[in-house]
C-alpha cells in the first residue's frame, strides 16, 4: 500500500510539474519581446492577440523608448492606465497590426503627440481620462477608426469640429457620461456607416432627424438620461436596420403613433420617462397587440395608472376617449 501511495504521489508531482512548466513557457510567446526590454510594461499573448499593459508612467519619452527598441513587436492592443504624461507617442498606434488602444484613469496634456496615420482599422477606448487641452477631434482625422468609446470625458457639444475630425468610416461611437449639452451643425448627418451610436448621461434637450444620416443603417441607438421632452414624428424614420433604441430617463410625457411605423421588429426602451397615459396614448394597447415591435415604458400619471407598464394597458382603460 505504501508503495502504491508513493507511486501516486510521484505521478501527481510529475503532472503538476509538467503543467507548471507549460504555464511558464506559454507566458512568453514568440510575439512578445523579452520582458527586460519592455519593463515596466507587460506583454500578454492570449486568444491570438498580443497585448501590452503599461502602468504608472510619468514620461512620454520613456514610453516611446520602449517601443522604439522593440521594432518587431507584433502588437495588436495596448492598455495604458494610472499614468500622468504629456501624450501617447504617435508611433505606437501606427504599427501595421495594431487594433485597439485602451486608456484608463490617466491624465494627458493631449491625446497624441501628432495626429497618427493608420492603415489597420482600430478601436479607441478612453475611460476616466483627463485631457487638459480637451479632446481634439482633428487628432483622430487620419485614423482608420472602427470605433470610439469615451467614459467620463466631458464633450460639451457635437458640432462642426467633430463632424470634420472623425473619419466617416467609423462604425461605432459611444459616449458615456459625456455631459453633452447640444448637437449642432447636423453633426452626425454624414456618418452613414455608423451602426452603433450612444450619447448618454448629459443635458441634451432637443434632437431632430436631420442631425443624423437619412437613410441610416444604425442597429443600436442610445440617447438615455438626457433632457429630451419632445420627439419629432419622423425621428425614427428611414432606419431600416434599427433593432434596439434606448431613450430611457428623458423627460418625455407623450409619444406619437406616427413615430412607430417600422415593419421590422424593434425594441424601444423608454423606461424612466414621465409619461401621462391619457387619450394621446390610447393607441398603445392596439400597437402592443398587433405589432412585433415592443415599446417598453411605464405610466407616471394619472395616479390610477402610475407605474403601469405599457404592455399591461388595455383598450378598455381608455373607454372615455373618442
UniProtKB/TrEMBL annotation:
SMART domains: LRRCT. The keyword Signal applies. Residues 1-19 form the signal peptide. Keywords: Leucine-rich repeat, Repeat, Signal. The keyword Repeat applies. One of its GO terms (cellular component) is plasma membrane. It holds the Pfam family LRR_8. This is LRRCT domain-containing protein.
Amino acid at each position: 500500500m505504501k508503495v502504491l501511495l508513493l507511486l501516486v504521489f510521484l505521478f501527481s508531482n510529475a503532472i503538476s510539474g509538467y503543467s507548471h512548466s507549460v504555464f511558464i513557457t506559454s507566458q512568453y510567446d514568440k510575439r512578445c519581446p523579452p520582458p527586460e526590454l519592455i519593463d515596466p510594461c507587460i506583454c500578454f499573448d492570449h486568444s491570438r492577440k498580443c497585448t501590452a499593459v503599461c502602468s504608472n508612467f510619468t514620461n512620454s519619452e520613456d514610453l516611446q523608448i520602449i517601443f522604439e527598441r522593440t521594432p518587431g513587436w507584433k502588437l495588436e492592443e495596448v492598455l495604458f492606465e494610472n499614468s500622468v504624461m504629456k501624450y501617447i507617442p504617435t508611433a505606437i498606434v501606427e504599427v501595421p497590426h495594431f487594433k485597439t488602444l485602451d486608456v484608463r484613469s490617466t491624465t494627458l496634456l493631449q491625446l497624441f503627440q501628432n495626429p497618427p496615420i493608420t492603415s489597420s482599422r482600430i478601436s479607441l477606448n478612453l475611460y476616466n481620462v483627463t485631457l487638459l487641452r480637451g479632446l481634439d477631434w482633428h487628432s483622430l482625422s487620419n485614423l482608420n477608426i472602427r470605433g470610439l468609446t469615451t467614459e467620463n470625458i466631458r464633450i460639451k457639444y457635437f458640432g462642426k469640429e467633430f463632424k470634420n475630425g472623425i473619419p466617416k468610416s467609423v462604425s461605432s461611437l459611444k459616449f458615456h457620461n459625456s455631459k453633452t449639452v447640444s448637437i449642432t451643425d447636423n453633426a452626425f448627418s454624414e456618418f452613414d456607416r455608423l451602426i452603433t451610436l450612444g450619447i448618454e448621461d448629459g443635458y441634451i434637450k432637443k434632437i431632430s432627424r436631420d442631425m443624423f444620416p437619412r437613410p441610416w443603417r444604425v442597429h443600436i441607438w442610445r440617447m438615455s438620461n438626457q433632457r429630451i421632452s419632445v420627439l419629432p414624428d419622423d425621428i425614427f424614420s428611414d432606419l431600416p436596420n434599427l433593432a434596439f433604441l434606448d431613450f430611457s430617463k428623458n423627460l418625455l410625457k407623450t409619444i406619437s403613433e406616427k413615430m412607430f411605423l417600422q415593419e421590422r421588429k424593434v425594441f424601444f426602451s423608454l423606461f424612466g420617462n414621465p409619461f401621462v397615459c391619457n387619450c394621446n396614448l390610447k393607441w398603445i394597447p392596439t400597437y402592443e397587440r398587433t405589432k412585433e415591435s415592443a415599446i417598453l415604458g411605464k405610466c407616471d400619471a394619472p395616479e390610477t395608472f402610475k407605474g403601469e407598464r405599457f404592455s399591461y394597458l388595455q383598450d378598455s382603460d381608455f373607454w372615455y376617449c373618442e
